[in-house]
Amino acid sequence: MEREQWSSMAGFILASIGSAVGIGNIWRFPYVVGANGGGAFLIPYLISVLLFGLPLMILEFAIGRSAATSVVSTFQSIRQRFAFLGLAIVAVVTLILGYYLVIASWVLAYALFFVLNRPVEFGAFTDSYLPLIFYLISGLAVFVTVRSGVREGIERSSRFLIPILIVILLILVVVSLTEPGAGEGIRFYLSPDYSRLTDPTVWIAAFGQAFFSLSVGMGILLTYGSYLRGGSLFKSASIIAAADMLIAVLAGLMIFPLVFTAGLDPAAGVNLVFVTLPSAFADIQFGMLLGTLFFTMLFVAALTSAISMLEVPVATMIDTYGYSRRRATLLVFIAVMLIGLPSALSYTALDLAFFGTPVLDLADYVFGTIGLIVAGLILSVVGGWFVGRSRICAEIGGCGWQQTVYMALIRYCVPAVLLITLAGSFFLVTG
Ligand code: PFF
């Protein structure tokens, strides 16, 4: 059977934006900025994106497009014995998907609560078994999309959903900026504290955030690149990274004015989205409508990212193990739902925890932080050192000085930064 392809470059770019723009942009970015020097944080963030996110993104696209197959088969084509490294990457993304879906399902539930104008307190919601139903619904939405294929499922849904996301975001930004707390919110979010730039943890936070937000290093972009023929990778990657960053910055511009208008403290983590924002919406005019829009947008963002994650193991089963897309999707779907179940249960009355840490938080740290960095390291080292310069140059428009600089970034800068981030992530938790 002929390999699937995107119907156009625009479809490919939209699907990649769908992957990149997720919970990380709308929820994580704003509070990471607020906690790490406000406006000043944008400097390390921009440097991280340009020097390290973008090169890695282009590398993944280039390898994927030249191999025209998914992660494990690509690794086998580089060196037969690298298959297990490819499998490790596929495992990490599958494990991340498990808990990512749990968060996505909470978002979906909240969207519905706001539509029905029946706010539910977060603790009461998670204590019930309602989250499990939403977990199943979110999983099914991702499953159905991926099962429909690259063009009919992934590309089509992105073409439809990404414009919706952008329109909702713009509406929310405009409304938030006219709220009374806008000035205070923006000051909290963006007032630059340049003294923080000498703090290495701020730089580690920037690298980690750029990496997570762009969905690089997970084989997702490699897989998406394998469905692409022709076109400039540099241009596409720049558009994707710019869109990702813009959406993240705009998300902060809408969140903090709302929080400050309601006179609340900007919290971090789960509480910001599921406790602080809902009570802000309850307090302001047209709050129910705004809440509905916000949670719908966040769900759309999470959905398109989850779709891209599911495609990685599915494409691997198709390309490496010869499964049909239908069977592959079904099997992976069942596996992912089981993998995510302990995370889904960790906030219910069952309180599944490991040494006092809820399984979901643990999964976020072990897979979503450490696993993600290790996967990125594997990809950058294998891609930079074993693929062959000429093969990469052929994909990125020749071997001039720009490409020499690019290869140096990939070979030395990216792995070095990932190692430092890895060490920092251990240190931040244990230190
Ligand atoms: N980039 C997505 C976000 O910002 O939410 C999340 C993500 C997707 C992370 C895929 C990791 C990943 F493999």
CATH homologous superfamily annotation? Hydantoin permease
What is the number of independent domains? Answer: 1
Q: What's the assembly state of these chains?
A: single chain
The counted number of beta strands is 2
User: Which word captures the global form?
Assistant: globular
- Text of the CATH class: Mainly Alpha
Question: Mind telling me the C-alpha Rg?
Answer: 21 Å
Assign the CATH architecture: Orthogonal Bundle
Main beta sheet, described?
A: 2 strands, antiparallel
| Integer average pLDDT | 92
By CATH, the topology is Hydantoin permease
- Give the ligands present: 4-fluoro-L-phenylalanine
Question: Care to describe what's here?
Answer:
By secondary structure, the chain is an all-alpha fold. The protein has one domain: Hydantoin permease (Orthogonal Bundle), CATH 1.10.4160.10. It contains 18 helices and two strands. It has helices at residues 9-20, 23-35, 42-67, 71-78, 83-115, 122-127, 130-147, 150-177, 182-190, 200-213, 220-225, 233-261, 270-283, 287-319, 325-345, 359-386, 389-395, 401-430, and strands spanning 353-354, 357-358. A two-stranded antiparallel ribbon has the order 1-2. A hairpin with a 2-residue loop joins strand 1 (353-354) and strand 2 (357-358). Helix 1 crosses helix 8, helix 2 packs across helix 12 (233-261) and helix 14 packs across helix 15 (325-345). The relative contact order is 0.19. The structure holds 4-fluoro-L-phenylalanine (PFF). 4-fluoro-L-phenylalanine (PFF) binds next to helix 1, helix 2, helix 5, helix 10 and helix 14. 4-fluoro-L-phenylalanine binds at residues 19-20, 22-25, 93, 96, 212-213, 215, 218, 220, 305, 309.
